[in-house]
């Protein structure tokens, strides 16, 4: 799976980035809802969120723009628990589904407190994707793998989001551990910086999530066509690695 991440509202043409990702072969797209205190995000995504907020981006505005798209791939809201709980889990998930989004990923929502959000999501047909990190204890990994929906998100490093010079062995160990407890795809994220790393990760993971590598280029002024070309290269690398 190729799962790019795009911060909603970071640029005026951000929905064109989603279209470019689909044309490049994305299997799903994480749509980042900008938040003022993105504790899990590194400097690139923080800057993208800040830029989006300065442009007046709101959750309601993002949902409205997304509702007018017809992209043909699952769209997953990547956000923080505050935005979900502030609106109310039921109202948030209802609005999410009305916008045509089918997944929710909130990295700061611990599994112990995810019950009400998961119940609300289920009522509205939204999958709650759960994350595990290299520091997650084995029993907790098993619970996360069993309760996650859509796919399981494996965090490759104990660090905020951001590109890494090389893949770390804890990410591989985590993926293999999670796969013992679920038939869902296990997607590796946090730190994937390009085609070579993506192909290497997909030797053991079922897919990769790529955020900072995308948004760094967007913040540098690259066009949707250029982002699409980068993602298409990653798609080819993943496919060739599995040929």
Q: What is this entry, summarized?
A:
By secondary structure, this protein is of the alpha/beta class.
Helix-strand blueprint:
Elements: E1 2-7, H1 14-23, E2 29-32, H2 43-54, H3 59-67, E3 75-78, H4 81-87, H5 89-98, E4 103-105, H6 115-123, E5 127-128, E6 131-132, H7 138-147, E7 152-155, H8 169-179, E8 186-189, H9 195-201, E9 207-210, H10 212-219, H11 224-241
Parallel strand pairs: 1-2, 1-9, 2-3, 3-4, 4-5, 6-7, 7-8, 8-9
Helix pairs in contact: 1-11, 2-10, 4-5, 5-6, 9-11
Task: Kindly describe this structure.
This protein is α/β, with parallel strands linked by helices. Helices cover 46% and strands 14% of the residues. The protein has helices at 14-23, 43-54, 59-67, 81-87, 89-98, 115-123, 138-147, 169-179, 195-201, 212-219, 224-241, and strands spanning 2-7, 29-32, 75-78, 103-105, 127-128, 131-132, 152-155, 186-189, 207-210. It has a nine-stranded parallel beta sheet. Strand 8 (186-189), helix 9 (195-201) and strand 9 (207-210) form a beta-alpha-beta unit. Helix 5 (89-98) packs parallel to helix 6. The longest helix is centred in the last third of the chain and has 18 residues, at 224-241. It is globular, with a radius of gyration of 16 Å. The mean pLDDT is 92.
């Amino acid at each position: 799976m190729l799962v790019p991440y795009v911060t909603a509202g970071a640029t005026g043409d951000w929905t064109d980035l989603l279209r470019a990702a689909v044309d490049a072969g994305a299997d799903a797209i994480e749509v980042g809802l900008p938040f003022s205190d993105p504790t899990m995000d590194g400097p690139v995504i923080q800057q993208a969120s800040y830029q989006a907020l300065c442009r007046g981006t709101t959750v309601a505005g993002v949902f409205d723009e997304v509702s007018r798209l017809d992209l043909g791939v699952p769209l997953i809201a990547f956000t923080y628990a505050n935005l979900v709980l502030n609106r109310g889990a039921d109202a948030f998930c209802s609005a999410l589904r009305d916008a045509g989004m089918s997944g929710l990923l909130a990295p700061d929502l611990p599994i112990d407190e995810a019950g009400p959000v998961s119940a609300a999501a289920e009522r509205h047909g939204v999958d709650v994707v759960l994350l595990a990190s290299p520091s997650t204890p084995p029993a907790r990994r098993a619970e996360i793998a069993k309760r996650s929906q859509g796919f399981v998100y494996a965090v490759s490093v104990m660090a905020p989001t951001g590109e890494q010079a090389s893949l770390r062995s804890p990410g591989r160990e985590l993926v293999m551990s999670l796969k013992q407890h679920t038939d869902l795809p296990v997607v590796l994220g946090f730190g994937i910086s390009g085609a070579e790393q993506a192909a290497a990760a997909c030797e053991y993971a079922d897919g990769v999530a790529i955020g900072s590598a995308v948004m760094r280029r967007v913040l540098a002024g690259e066009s949707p066509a250029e982002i699409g070309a980068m993602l298409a290269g990653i798609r080819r690398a993943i496919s060739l690695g599995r040929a």
